[in-house]
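Project standup — Tuesday

K.O.: blocked on the structure for the chain from last sprint. Re-posting the sequence here as requested.
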Amino acid sequence: MASAESLAQLQILQRQYLQLVDPLQLRWPDAQVLKSPEVQSWMFLHMFDEGSVKSPPPERYQLRVLKLLIAKLERSIVDPEEDEISDDLMSAMATLLTSNVPSEADSAQQKAFVTYSYPLHSADDSTSEEQAVTLLEARSVISGSGTTGLRTWEAALLLGSYLTTDDGRRMIKGKRVFELGAGTGVISILCAKHLGASGVVATDGDEAVVDAIKTNLFLNGLDVDSLEGCQVRTAALKWGWPVDAMAFSEDYGMEVPNVLLGADVTYDKTVIPRLVSTMNEFLDLNSALEILISATIRNEATFETFLNACRRNGFRFEQLGFPPIPEPEQAGPFYPTSTPIQIWRITKSEAARNDPFAV
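H.V.: unblocked you, prediction finished:
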């Protein structure tokens, strides 16, 4: 098999492929590595074999990637008698070329499997474990009510990367986690499936998005009715509405949370007052609650509106020193970094804890 370095390159390529990274942005191993029979066999088995890849990308995407791969292999061959292209790879492409692959426009409108991988390395870096979350996403579709919750955005991917660090895992392990604006549910699923949360509630304001989260929970082997392991629930939650402490357990199947999470929930200035009001309701339920908000700063004035609302409510907040990884260095998940992404920790100030009327 290929060297450890080549295998690492192949694994990054596989993660990009399963995350549906644009084929033109895939990071390919060099030609000498690609033309190795063992490497071609590995790529077929882990990327294109229908019997081995559990949640494959759409056929249109597979075909685009295979065409690029075959072209690279053809250019790499110097002596056809010594080097050859895998029959399995050629057969896979031939099958796709002769099948009824949807058009580019139709394919873009269909839901597709997208797998996000968070590689976890041991302390001595001798072993690694794939922490994968597979979702059904409609990447080009906005739901009937205008929500963008049917696809995963970069702020959620950065927040997931933080939560898989040692500090992040300590924050989640054994805790009750509540997510606002969960969208596809990637963060809630990551906490329940890989990070050891004792309970998770994934909420969104759109019923269609909540239904999609339920599908994604099932895809990841998380049964909301199971009495074993992490208890996972979904619910529709409109920000700004009172949170009833007495009915919390009945409504959400979980005691008051220890951790509140939100990713890409601050992009609309008009909903920020309601968002901060809901955060305040949860802090009233548990003054020791920790809140993490991950935000893509598309408009600095809009995000400043959010911080000002936090100030008015007497919240303490600090930006975590966890910047996005530069795109060429990302090993999974993969996301653009052209727009700033920040993670903020929000807690109740000591004054507000001691005096509920303090601002």
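K.O.: great, moving the ticket to review. Residues 120 and 165 are 8 Å apart (CA to CA). Residues 142-147 have pLDDT under 50 and may be disordered.
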